[in-house]
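Below is a filled-in request sheet from our internal design queue. Each sheet records the structural input a requester submitted and the sequence that came back. We keep these sheets so that new team members can see what a complete request looks like end to end.

REQUESTER: design group, bay 2
PRIORITY: normal
MODE: inverse folding
CHAIN LENGTH: 147
BACKBONE (tokenized):
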């Protein structure tokens, strides 16, 4: 009986105001995570474009991965970009093709790891999207390391 008396002190009723505050924090966290993901995808897209500008011979290998990164950026809310930039800066990419591809693989791995770490903060739907894009990035890194 004493246990029942203790349990009655706890209520399943929650303060509606706290639900609203929790929802606002969740929406804010979602927006923050999506904005970061869009920015990260945009930065990665810039790296692909610089590599392609510096090493046009890599177009067949890098083009499909670049296009997928562009789709990821758009999915996270980044502004759409043209498939081929007007004049990207080739100086932003390593001098050799091998180094450029290696740098892209490293960037893909690092971004996939950051996205996987962000899963714990993300609401379920966004977590699924982050996990999917992180897996794609890990796949890109793998493909970039294979000759």
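RETURNED SEQUENCE:
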């Amino acid at each position: 009986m004493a246990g029942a008396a203790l349990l009655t002190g706890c209520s399943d009723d929650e303060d509606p105001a706290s639900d609203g505050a929790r929802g606002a924090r969740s929406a804010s966290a979602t927006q923050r995570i999506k904005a970061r993901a869009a920015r990260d995808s945009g930065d990665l897209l810039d790296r692909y474009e610089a590599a392609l500008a510096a090493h046009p011979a890599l177009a067949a290998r890098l083009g499909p991965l670049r296009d997928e990164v562009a789709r990821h950026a758009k999915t996270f809310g980044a502004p759409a970009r043209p498939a081929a930039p007007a004049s990207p800066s080739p100086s932003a990419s390593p001098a050799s093709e091998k180094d450029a591809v290696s740098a892209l693989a490293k960037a893909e791995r690092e971004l996939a790891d950051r996205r996987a770490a962000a899963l714990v903060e993300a609401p379920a739907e966004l977590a699924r999207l982050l996990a999917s894009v992180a897996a794609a990035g890990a796949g890109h890194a793998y493909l970039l390391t294979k000759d």
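SHEET NOTES:
- Residues 1-13 have pLDDT under 50 and may be disordered.
- The chain is about 75% helix and 0% strand.
FILED BY: M.R.
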